[in-house]
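Hi V.,

Quick status before I head out on leave. The structure for the redesign project is tokenized and pasted below; the design run finished overnight.
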């Protein structure tokens, strides 16, 4: 089931309105041995100009603002944005730079975060964990 969900997510990202109709970059580890293509390099957040902490703060501010503008303002949006930006920072510090990997990790981590259930995290929000993962990936692609 998870493989099917990841495949559907992959297809969705290929056809999303971000303008990127190219295959997603693989998760890049320190032992990654083959040279990345130009397309794969564009899908890595390592080329972003700010530090990880600056990008985290900007992600939190942007995501919370977007959710509050799109839906009614709610404290859940701040909670979601804070958790998402914390996950982003943790993953970036561990060397993850592929947008697709960040999307999946953020969405999966929001399902059960620090003992909080998904209901606790998203209480009162009109979005779910995969919506947030997609919003974060759209934001990251625009920042590249």
């Amino acid at each position: 089931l998870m493989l099917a969900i990841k495949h559907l997510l992959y297809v969705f990202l290929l056809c999303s309105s971000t303008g990127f109709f190219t295959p997603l970059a693989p998760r890049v580890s320190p032992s990654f041995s083959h040279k990345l293509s130009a397309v794969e390099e564009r899908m890595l957040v390592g080329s972003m100009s700010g530090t990880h902490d600056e990008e985290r703060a900007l992600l939190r501010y942007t995501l919370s603002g977007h959710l509050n503008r799109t839906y009614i303002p709610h404290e859940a949006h701040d909670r979601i944005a804070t958790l998402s930006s914390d996950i982003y920072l943790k993953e970036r510090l561990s060397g993850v730079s592929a947008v697709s990997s960040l999307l999946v990790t953020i969405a999966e981590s929001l399902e059960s975060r620090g003992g909080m259930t998904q209901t606790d995290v998203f209480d009162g929000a009109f979005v779910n964990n995969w919506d947030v993962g997609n919003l974060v990936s759209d934001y990251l692609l625009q920042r590249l």
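Above is the designed sequence. DSSP finds seven helices and two strands in the chain.

G. will cover questions while I'm gone.

Best,
W.
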